[in-house]
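Lab notebook, design round three. We kept the backbone fixed and only want residue identities now. Task for the bench partner: fill in a sequence for the structure below.
Input structure tokens:
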């Protein structure tokens, strides 16, 4: 046998060399970095560098993975946001505070186009579980060291995603990722990490006394559990309600006392947002203009006597209702584009859940559960002003777009970049 023949035979017997998941690594580094007390540009640089390495090493994908209707919904949302910024009553503020959309859009593109398989998506979920655990530990340590008044010490922790106590909504919204990992293999190291992350997140929310965080936690986990298995959803609901009630009792019922307020100070904030919308119904007053106009509308509106004014000052930054915020700042067109984006994402996520392999089934349940939790949080807290809300929205959009491709909803059918295994279709 010639030397050339021996080399050819040896090369055929060797397994193909797997390229490192550069895109997934870049996404994970960004998610860890954007929640850590480090300069904000470092995570973005890491994301861009790893995305470029993935692009040059893997070449052009076979087909754009995101289904066309979803692509159009995302583009419409971005274009209408840009138009609202251009027409804003406070253009400089709108432009400056919209900077968080840059990493959000990059995350969407990288996840939807460059993540190659369900394993890459699972790595992103594991990263969220780790971030949730780290942030929960930081909050519990701060509560232990500095006391119950988290407004006084929270910003001192230097965590960019935790500026006010209700930012614990972010921790609640990423628990579906942990639940999916724990459900897959609860006895593995990753499953145990995920379970600990959920428990610690619940403890942190109780320690901060956030009623909105507690409601968001319950909504997110129960929705995800129900999607995984209806009995799991019921069981989680019972356990969470009992756990929150017992923990609240041990802390002296701080949550229960807040739920006794039938009329909250948020009503005045909602009325201001509604009046802003009526004055600019089509494209709104401009992203993040709520604070700029707060005092003007507060002085102009004749509030009913039963309305309690917000106690935190005369320049509240956001409306504490995502839907009224969208109407006030982006108008009917901006609100409609957001509804189209979310509606299409839910439709594709449910479709991917029905068509995917057992692994894709679980991943879809986590993404849908987190998106449902974000919509619930939007009723009383979530805002596009918060970097975690923007990042989470685009991450979920990217994950669902990627799952739609993996389950064959994109042009070109099954589009696993560099992944030859198709997996078994159907529920686990």
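Proposed sequence:
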């Amino acid at each position: 046998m010639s030397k050339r023949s021996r080399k050819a035979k040896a090369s055929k017997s060797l397994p193909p060399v797997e390229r490192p998941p550069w895109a997934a690594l870049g996404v994970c580094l960004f998610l860890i970095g954007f929640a850590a007390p480090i300069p904000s540009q470092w995570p973005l640089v890491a994301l861009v560098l790893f995305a470029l390495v993935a692009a040059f090493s893997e070449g052009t994908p076979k087909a754009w993975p995101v289904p066309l209707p979803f692509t159009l919904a995302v583009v419409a949302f971005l274009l209408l946001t840009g138009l609202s910024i251009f027409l804003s009553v406070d253009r400089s503020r709108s432009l400056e505070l919209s900077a968080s959309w840059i990493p959000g859009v990059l995350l969407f593109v990288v996840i939807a186009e460059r993540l190659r398989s369900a394993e890459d998506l699972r790595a992103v979920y594991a990263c969220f579980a780790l971030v949730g655990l780290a942030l929960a530990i930081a909050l519990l340590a701060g509560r232990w060291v500095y006391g119950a008044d988290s407004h006084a010490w929270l910003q001192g922790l230097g965590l960019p995603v935790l500026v006010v106590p209700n930012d614990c909504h972010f921790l609640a919204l990423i628990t579906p990722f942990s639940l999916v990992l724990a459900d897959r293999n609860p006895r593995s190291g990753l499953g145990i990490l995920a379970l600990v992350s959920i428990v610690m997140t619940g403890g942190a929310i109780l320690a901060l006394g956030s009623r909105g965080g507690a409601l968001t936690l319950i909504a997110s986990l129960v929705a995800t559990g129900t999607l995984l298995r209806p009995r799991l959803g019921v069981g989680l609901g019972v356990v969470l309600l009992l756990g929150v009630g017992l923990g609240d009792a041990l802390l002296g019922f701080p949550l229960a006392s807040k739920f006794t307020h039938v009329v909250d100070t948020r009503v005045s904030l909602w009325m201001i947002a509604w009046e802003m919308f009526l004055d600019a119904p089509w494209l709104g007053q401009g992203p993040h203009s709520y604070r700029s106009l707060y005092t003007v509308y507060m002085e102009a509106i004749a509030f009913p006597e039963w309305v309690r004014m917000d106690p935190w000052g005369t320049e509240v930054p956001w409306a504490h209702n995502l839907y009224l915020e969208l109407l006030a700042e982006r108008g009917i067109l901006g609100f409609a584009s957001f509804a189209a984006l979310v509606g299409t994402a839910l439709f594709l996520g449910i479709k991917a859940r029905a068509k995917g392999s057992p692994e894709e089934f679980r991943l879809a349940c986590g993404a849908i559960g987190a998106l449902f939790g974000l919509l619930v949080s939007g009723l009383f807290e979530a805002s596009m002003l918060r970097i975690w809300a923007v990042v989470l929205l685009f991450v979920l959009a990217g994950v669902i777009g990627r799952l739609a491709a993996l389950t064959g909803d994109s042009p070109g059918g099954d589009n696993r970049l560099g992944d030859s295994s198709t997996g078994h279709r159907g529920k686990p």
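Keep this in mind before ordering anything: Residues 77 and 337 are 5 Å apart (CA to CA).
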